[in-house]
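Chapter review: from sequence to fold.
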Amino acid sequence: MMTLGTANMCSHLQKKLFDEDGEYHHLWIAMQDDEELTAVVRSRQLHIYRNGKKVLVLAGKSAPKIIREDPICELFVKLTKEYVSPDTKT
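The token string follows.
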């Protein structure tokens, strides 16, 4: 089970991620079952890594950023429509 410190996380992102009707809640549930994924809160955003390589950045108000192809990103694209292309590096 993944746990996160939410003290430095944007309140909008907290709602999207942890509320059952939140836009990113389905990703949070999927992340719980994937032992290769880790997540860190940086600059009020959630940075998601697979095996140490960044794959996705979620923010509260700004558009999410897909960094590289990954099953969690495919799930994200399938369930949401707004994202930034992998050409945008963070």
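Two observations follow directly from the output. Residues 11-79 form one domain. The helical segments are 11-18, 25-32, 71-79.
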